[in-house]
Amino acid sequence: MSDVExxxxxxxxxxxxxxxxxKDKLERALVIQRCINNRTQVFMPIGAVLQKMGVxxxxxxxxxLAVQAGGAAPQPVAGALDGWTDAVPLASGTGKQVRLEVAPxxxxxxxxxxxxxxxxxSMEKIKALLLENNISxxxxxxxxxxxxxxxxxxxxxxxxxARGVEPVPGKPPEIQYFFDTNPMRIGTLLEDGxxxxxxxxxxxxxxxxxxxxEKVGGDPGKPGTDVFGxxxxxxxxxxxxxxxxxxxxxxxxGRQLIAKIGGTPRLGPDGRVTVWAVLPxxxxxxxxxxxxxxxxxxxxxxxxxxxxxxxAGSLETRxxxxxxxxxxxxxxxxxxxxSTTGKVGGxxxxxxxxxxxLEVLGDLVVEKxxxxxxxxxxxRCLVDSGKIxxxxxxxxxxxxxxxxxxxxxxxxxxxxxxxxxxxxxxxACKDALADQERKKTExxxxxxxxxKRIDELDAELGQVAQEQDGCMVxxxxxxxxxxxxxxxxxxxxxxxxxxxxxxxxxxYELLDKKVQAIMAQDDQVRAQIAHYTQEAANFDKxxxxxxxxxxxxxxxxxxxxxxxxxxxxxxxxAKTLVICPHRRLLIPNETKNVRISExxxxxxxxxxxxx
Length: 611
What we know:
The chain is of the alpha/beta class. Among the domains are: 1-68, no CATH class; 86-163, no CATH class; 363-419 and 562-611, Pectate Lyase C-like, CATH 2.160.20; 423-549, Helix Hairpins (Orthogonal Bundle). The longest helix has 69 residues, at 491-559.
């Protein structure tokens, strides 16, 4: 279990122990967390997921985090006083009393009179009171206590008689990475929103046994002591986790990550360090290489030629021409992508994209232009200094571009804030649900018909059994007649009776075979009923799993919504179609430097606003 998983596990245990989260809700939140991580490549702590779900308030999350950090709720100590004690007599028969208070954090204890103008008790009485309540650490000196008790009457303000020592919080170590953690950038997005296309960086390469990351610094802190002499532990600090995957190992002390193989190191969105094996291709991907299928990083010095395919963990190349790609991670193309189809599971960065159909799970960053394309993006579409022309673009997290269209080009269709991946997954789930429910209904109908067949076989078996009984009765009656003296002397009657008895025996055997056949059918039908009943139970389980997945998808969509916004710093040409989750708008006239967004007016009706 990773450090992050351990932290989330502890959070969940505390929440359940405090009875503010049920186990079912926590398990659902963990599933939603995995769903969000898989869909967005962003790790969300379990507390944030529970808060987004509406299960916990921010205050509840903060209180659990405080306990998790080491600030545990105060626990009673034998003899300790929670708040003000009952009045403790200090002078028998005088009625004079004081009260002793211990702070909730147990770091201080105070005394105060119970009434105005009360004379002070003796020092011995105060010490006895402290001893009786196990207050032994940080007690003030006799000189200070004597000076306080010298006041007559006693001041009403509480007086500190013991003070503990607070724990010194520690400092968590930091993770230092020894490789470029963002190597595949085609440019750097600056604070003002513009792109520095010259700042590209190099793909890092490491050898086996290279140090990749290390925990550095940190301070364990120092425990404190309460007024009862009990140690106060150091507040727990969030120790950053060193997570790793393929091609990486962790040192024995858990403070270093080391490359197991030579290759390209990567820091994933979930914080895992991976070393991809590298497949360098000095020429083009074409007739000399054939299709390329490689689990690691493919680095092509040339381009990918028409008709060829690359399937890899990540890809860097100069150009892609009429090819098919299937990349599970990031892809960087230094010049252009032309007439290409495929999927990218991470971020895609290119100079320009023409006449291509792509699906991108992360962000799409393009330097110059997108022309004649159909692209679905689950992140942002950034064409900060370029154009979108005659294209159909869907970007869940919004679009940032300079120009949209030209005066002569076919208008573009831009969809923002819509999660088509979610809609496909939801449709697939609902189709699967309908299919499973149909199969379950068919199975239940089959079971009903089989049970009817059991009833028919039972009736048939009863009828045959009656015939058997009748046959047996007749056979026994004839056998008794053979014993009669009058029959025993008549050979003809004996022969006739024996023939009848033989026929009845044969008939009984035939009926017995029929009984066995009926019982065999009964066993077969009952086995079919058991099979189909189990199948129906399996359908129930699958239906429940699909319904849970649908609910998780719905909750995940609420937690991770889209952003229906288009920002255009240049010109948006007329007839550009903007589609948002609830409204669509055909831009009537050429506009410049605008922000187009869908808003909810007065909490009632959606509209698209051009600002």
